[in-house]
Please model this.
Amino acid sequence: MPNAFHENRVHGTTAFPLQVYSHHDRDGFYSVSQHWHEELEWIWAETGVLSMTVHGKPCTLQAGEFCFINSGELHEIRSEGASLHHAIVFQAGMLDFALYDSCQHQFIRPVTSGQLTFPTRPDRLAPDTARQILACLRDIVQCYHDKSPSAPLHIKIRILQVLELLYRDNALTETTASPREEENLNKLKTVLRYMRANYAQPLTLQQLADLVYLSPAYFCHAFHRATGTSPIAFLNGYRIEQAARMLAETDESISRIAEAVGFDNFSYFIRKFREYKRISPREYRRQIR
Model:
C-alpha cells in the first residue's frame, strides 16, 4: 500500500535540501488536503487569505502573516479567494554543525532532534520579533528565486537568524506528546493511507475504525483531534479534490467523474462539490481551463 498522505517529494537537492514554493492563485481554487512530511515548513501569505488546519487546529493567515509547521504534523491549506503565498520547505538536519560545539548542543540539536518544536502561529511573539522574522522570510524567498551563487549561504544564515529570534522570545516549546498520543497519531496516518488508496470504494466509519482496532466513537474523537474534521468529512473532501483534478485534466463527463471518485449519488456529489469549492463542477471546469 502506498504511503499516501506522507509526502515523498524531494525538496531541494541532496547538497541543499531546501525548496521554496511560491503559488499565485488567481481564482481561489488552491487547496492541498491533509498530509505530512519529515521536513519543516514555513508559510508566508504575501497577499490574500489562507485557511489552514495544522495538527487538528484551524489557522487563518492574513496577508503579511506567517506560520510554522513541524516535522510530521498533519496539515492542510486552502485559499480564500485570490492569494499569493510562499512555502519554505527544508530538512532540519541541514542546520547541524559538523563541529559539535556549545551552539550545536544548546540551540541546534534540540531543534533538529525534535526535542523543541516551533509555534504554529507566532501570536505571542513581541511585535518587533515578528517583523524581523517576516523580513527574514521575505529575504529567503527573494534570494531563492534570484539564484545568486551565494544564495545557499545567505538562506542558511537567515534560517539561523529566525531560530535565534525564536529562542530570544522563548517561543520554542518542548515536545509534549505522550507515547499514547504518538501511537494514536500513527494509527490515524495508517487510516489516511488506506483512505487514499481506496477512496473510490464504499467506506464506512466502522470499516475505518476496525483498521486500527478502535471503537467508532473513540476513532472519531481521535481523528477529529488530529485533523480538525470527522473521518467522513475528510474522505468527502479528498474525493472532491480528486474530482477537481479530473475536471481540470480530463474530458470525462461530470457524472462519470462523480462515480469514479466514490459518489454513488450524483446530487449529493454536486452539493458537496459546491460546499468545498464554492462553485459547481461545470463552472469549475470552465474557469480552471
Summary: The first strand starts at residue 18 and ends at 25.
